[in-house]
# Entry
Amino acid sequence: MSTTALLEDTKLGPKAGGLYRHQNFLTGILTGGVAMFLGWLVAHYTVQNNANWGSDMVVTVTMAAWVVGFMAGIGAFNAVFRWMVGHDQDHDDELYAAGVSQGWRRYFKFCTDHKVVGTQYLVLVMSLFAVGGTLAMIIRTQLISPNNHLISPQTYNAVISIHGMIMIIATIIMVSGPWANFILPIQLGAKDMAFPRLNALSLWLVVAAVPPILISLFIGGVDSGWTTYAPLSVQSPPGQDAFAITIITFVVSVTVAGINTITTTMTMRAKGMTMGRLPIFVWGSLVAAGLGLYAMPAFLAAQSMLLTDRVVGTSFFAPAQGGAGWLYENIFWIMGHPEVYVILIPGVAAAMDVASTFSRKPLFGYKIAVGAFFGLGALALMVWAHHMFTTGWAPNLADPWMLTTELISIPTGVFFLVIIGTLWRGSIWTRLPMYWVYLFLWNFIIGGVTGIYLSDVPADQYFHGNMFVTAHFHYTLLGGGMIGATAALCYWFPKMSGKMLNERIGKLAFWVIAIFFQVTYFGMFWEGFQGMPRRIAAYAPYFHSANLIATIGAYGLFLGWVILLYAIIHSWMNGKVAPSNPWQAKSLEWHISSPPPLENFLVDPIVTSDPYTFGEGEPMAPAKQPSPATVGSTEGGAH
Amino acid sequence: MSVVDEHSSHEHHGHYAEGGNHHDTPQAKHRKEHMLLWMLIGGDMVFTALIIFAWFYLKALNVEGMWRGAACKPNFNAGLNQSCTDGIGNAINHIVPTAAPLHTFAIAILAIVGAGFMWFAEVQARQGASGKATTPLLGLGALAILGALVWQIYQFQVLPFTTVQGAYASSFEYIMGSNVGHLALVSIVAVGLFIRGSKGLHDNGRWYQIHLSRLFAVWVAFSVTLLAFMVTFFN
# Structure
């Protein structure tokens, strides 16, 4: 058989792609803008003639029109429409959609190549973190002194809410977006994700979801926190409607992305890639995707019911008309706690992969780690009400909820032991990705241990409403999940970009982040121990010292992320060319060039062992980084 | 991880009439789509379960006696003088009437009939029938589903209550909205199948898309029927 490679500059027919040829990010914005205006016009006119509907209807219709218009403008519905009329895409159309012969422009289009989607996700995630981080700086600046007047209390509430939700959105996709898209299919030996169009759809849905939540800041804001508890959120300004549209759009994105990840893993593995040989990152992504499938419908239900309460006057959550705030809280946390593990598990799994590679040892307790992922996933379904200990809901059930929550410490403890066991007596090669694994371990143990206090009903009565909780979940989601994601970034950056990440700047960023992270959140623990309530714009002078320390820490932390961002951009533009396997790792992605060719493998790999065969005739930790000239090639293919 | 080379990979894939991922054989594509569909249905089952949970939760709590307004007595304590009013301030001093089962079950029956035609078309296609035999069945299925959709929208106009009249009315209309969304999705698929069938795209044993669409239509018909029973007999 021929070994003709499918290259990115393959010549396609002049009409390949059809309408796609004329669609991109800009046409999406234009179409979305026009749809938004038309939506506003129709809703505004309708409201004037209907006494029961108000500004909430206008905002909802306008924002929904933006999402539909943007997605239509970028080409998300082309294939569906063509399927409906029986005019399926042909081979050239699909190659065009995969970005063939489009160069850099494919990064601004509805491109179906999983590597393009992964890269787009990475840029999107970093942009979201930039926005969320800037909002965090506003919050901390407001809290630098007891009665600061930087922003009004109403604006403060809105900033708190939007900071929280943007960070939640960003952390949910920070690993499953860039790495489960870019790396996971290659780790499996696949040429792409199972559903390339759904893959692009999931990315662009998140892009479409962002403007409404940002616009919400300018139409009254969201004053009910990121959890948008009802009935407060039923009475919030119209910004709440835009917020709900963002969430509903995001739910669709995460759902289709999760289905894609699961289907890819189950059906597209290379020959010999048995389930027992899957890299641990794949297992983590698989479990997180499954949990997302369970959790996201609950988010959809909570936000859509809230929206109908606000827009058409239903009463799911307004007690005076027969609704119940507890209903919202239950549905929200049925989503909310599994969602914590949707965020955390992929980052933990990536940290495990990094630990194995850089300690030159097989992953310790591989099967136990997989079992712990599933155990955590199962327990995640049974702990939601611990978020409601202080609400007065079902006090008789507090004990079982406390027990299931405390059981969570078993699988999370296993994660910790797996990484420690992997490092134990390893020939550790301390490169930049490993730094983040160490920081992950430090943060994760603090986040985990403080979580045990919060699972305890009596202790939770004191801590729940104060800054202790804020510090705890930042240690867990940021200190654990996001630091794990950063380990993944530093580990797979050479594969994604074809360039080595500048370690000198990267290590500077690491130390700044590591130190100021502790300053920030220990400051918040201190605030919590003193009893300072969370979500307040002004506080008693008694809390000043702790707040000052937390704010100084936050400035330093922000600086650290800026330095890391600089390292990424600088390295991507001017970095040293990466060899195909700079870490001398074993999994499949390191057997092909950096960056990989269009269809990843020029020959189909057959896998004959697991991805952690370190120590079997392998050298110990390399004394220095191998040079590009001696390792790997740019041709791709299995070695 | 040790790997060995196999044969070249791209050359023999070509493309297939049904489109989709160009790497796949039809069998591989169908296996993946089957899995996708079942996961979508699984997610939708969770959503449906939450609707049922909300229904019984609000009914059991009957907050302020406002499930259907029957037990509502004005309560002026602690400033709760808004009790016994609907969402726009009108007094509710009567039991909110229930929706007529005729409409609710007619919609469910039409959804079942639509799914049934699609199923019959699938059976025919599996037995090797040509597009001439299956396409009319798909057309009838699409018509039934569209009928269910139109009737569901019509039901909004004839309800004896509005969204603002307590938790029963709210939940009922939310379920109707959910039905509209689901039936609209099935309608798009059913109309698409009919058009494709009329172009001969289901001929020569290519019944798999009918199969997938039928599965989704059956699930939607089941959920619409289940919710119809709930809102009619547990209100």
About this structure: DSSP finds 20 helices and one strand in chain A. Chain A touches chain B through 86 residues (CB under 8 Å). Confidence is low (pLDDT under 50) at residues 623-639 of chain A. The first strand of chain A starts at residue 603 and ends at 607.
